[in-house]
Amino acid sequence: MPAPRRLLAFALAAPLLLASCTTDGGDSDDGGSANAGGGSDGDLSVTVITHGSAGDAFWDVVQNGAEAAGEDLGVDVDYQSDGDPQRQAQLIDAAVNQGVDGIVVSMANPDALQESVESAVAAGIPVVTINSGGDRSTEFGAIGHVGQDETIAGEGAGRELAAEGASNVLCVIHEAGNIGHEQRCAGAATGLGATVTPVQVDINDLTGAQSTITSQLQSDPTIDAVLALNSAVAAVAVESAADAGSDASIATFDLNQDVIGGIQDGSIAFAVDQQQYEQGYLPVVMLKLYAENLNTVGGGQPVLTGPGIVDATNVDEIADLASAGTR
């Protein structure tokens, strides 16, 4: 296990290990009864259900984190995803019917998932939400949320863009109906203190996305920055700027090898890193601790994993971690 993972696993699993020491063969007054949460037989099953699209490098890292936590903590983790909110709801319903011990779910479209998430909670299955929908998590009965606050992250991106000298920014939304993307663009406008224009593209049609961004840059030469909300879109935004003969700076949310390479060669100014490995890893830890001790984390507030800014000052260090699938 890489050193960062070992440290994270130790730090977060320490309360669990201490609880195990005090309940297994200890001298408790009740004769060594199970923990407050009823205990776990070591076969805890957790289903992770996200809205990620197949082949999306961002969600591959989330999956890596969840599966690594399962290996570290002895939890059976089943990762599933579907970008269609109705099918995602069906996956939640199927997990409930299977009687899993915990569910992790990203809520890009909270309204579409509300009934299914609340049904899981009503069935006695603890739920941790991740990535999107944090403002609805407690309402639906989840025991916690892990992710970044999209408005705060957007504001951070806006401030970085302002420092780059931008004043007219194109914000590229790649998933229709994803409230988190709208919050990023709105936050960027606040942080920038100037014009941020949202434009809709389809993450499943990157050629079309490139054409749309190119058209926007050609039609408005005053656009001096493009903010992508996805690493794959950032790569086509670089090509769009070249196609349009634009000097607009390119910035993005999230990392992949292309974005890291772009920051290193100067074609991408910076990336807002929400550290999605943690969004996979931490919920499994939280569900394990809840099963063992009824521990909860966050006090009703989200556990924030970002934003962190990756730019020329730190990209080389990040590159080594990304190659291991943890960033």
From TrEMBL:
Lineage top rank: taxon: Bacteria
Signal peptide segment: 1-25
Membrane spanning stretches: none
MF annotations from Gene Ontology: carbohydrate binding
Main subcellular location of this protein, as a coarse class: other
Domain Periplasmic binding protein per the UniProt entry, residue ranges: 53-292
One GO term describing the cellular component: outer membrane-bounded periplasmic space
Compartments where found: Cell envelope
UniProt keyword annotations, A-Z: Signal
Family per record: Belongs to the bacterial solute-binding protein 2 family.
Protein name: Monosaccharide ABC transporter substrate-binding protein, CUT2 family
Lineage: Bacteria, Bacillati, Actinomycetota, Actinomycetes, Geodermatophilales
